[in-house]
Amino acid sequence: MEIEKNISLAKFTTLQVGGVADFFARAKSENDLKAALEFAGKNFLPIFIFGGGSNLLFSDAGFRGLVIRNEIGGVEFKKNLVRAGSGVPLAVIVAECARRGLKNLENFAGIPGTVGGAVIGNANGIGDKILRIRVLNADGETVTLSREDLEFNYRQSSLQDAKSFLVEAEFTLEKTEEDLQQKVAELAREKFAKHPFAKTAGSWFKNPEGKQAWKLIAAAGCRDLQIGGARVSDRHANFFENADGAAASDFLALEKVVAEKVFAQSGIRLEREVVVVD
């Protein structure tokens, strides 16, 4: 595994925004991840680990430490279970499960990012489908945790605050005669039809309880609002677009204005969903 220096982070995110990382590594295996963590420990470096970069905003200042891109692969099927490396694109296991006639993950069609990102952020309640996971703790030891050891809530999990790193996840599936491939294709088309054809990080704000963030933003008159190169999408008001060479500061300024307008109009304070790394 190679440790690179002074790497631009913008090209690794769907927003195409971000400064330079002092050190950068690609972890393609558990051993790579261990080696990267050891390097960071010996050099007293802060660490940030990410996967697909689809829900992420790196600051213009970059990252003064080691950024690790999780590319841990591997997909294994055994009866009604699938085990996947945390760096596997979610779309890969969704498609493969559908091809094999195994249900439970088809509703995650069209969701970008990796298995690790989806589990850690509990995307669409994926935590409910987990049987167990394996994590690497701060001491370099691998630990297996069951679903009962974890806490999942709306768009978050206990893994976000844990000082451990997800290596793989195992999901419980069910055999079915339903045409899951057709269902996956239709669900993906439906999602893509609603989303902007632009550089975005997905939903910028979480949905407040009983509300939809995009409706609140649109009602506050923010659709198509632009600050610098960052713009509220006219197709989906909860998506912010990199419309014209945006900086991270443009997105944060846009977020502030949108949140203030929504609060003034509805009395509701929006909570950011996108992960900001500075």
Description:
- This protein has helices spanning 30-42, 90-99, 115-120, 180-194, 213-219, 248-266; strands spanning 3-8, 20-27, 47-50, 56-58, 63-70, 75-78, 81-85, 102-103, 130-137, 142-146, 152-153, 156-157, 164-172, 174-175, 200-203, 226-227, 230-232, 239-242, 275-277.
- It has 3 domains: 3-70, Uridine Diphospho-n-acetylenolpyruvylglucosamine Reductase, domain 2 (2-Layer Sandwich); 75-181, Uridine Diphospho-n-acetylenolpyruvylglucosamine Reductase, domain 3 (2-Layer Sandwich); 196-277, Uridine Diphospho-n-acetylenolpyruvylglucosamine Reductase, domain 1 (Alpha-Beta Complex).
- The protein starts with a strand and ends with a strand.
- It has a 5-stranded antiparallel β-sheet with strand order 6-7-13-9-10.
- It is of the alpha+beta class.
- The longest helix is centred in the C-terminal third of the chain and has 19 residues, at 248-266.
- The protein is built from 6 helices and 19 strands.
State the major sheet.
Answer: 5 strands, antiparallel
Count every beta strand, where a strand is a DSSP E run of 2 or more residues. 19
Q: What would the CATH topology of the largest domain be? A: Uridine Diphospho-n-acetylenolpyruvylglucosamine Reductase, domain 3
- Total domains, how many? 3
Q: Unreliable segments (pLDDT under 50, ≥5 consecutive)?
A: none
Can you count the helices? 6
Give the integer mean of the pLDDT values.
93
- Specify the helix fraction band: 25-40%
Strand order of the largest sheet: 6-7-13-9-10
Apparent shape: globular
Q: Structural class of the secondary structure composition? A: alpha+beta
- Determine the strand fraction and express it as a percent band: 25-35%
Secondary-structure element series:
EEHEEEEEHEHEEEEEEHEHEEEHE
Under the CATH scheme, the architecture of the largest domain is 2-Layer Sandwich
Over the alpha carbons, how many angstroms does the gyration radius reach? 19 Å
Alpha-carbon distance between the two ends:
25 Å
Output the CATH class name of the largest domain: Alpha Beta
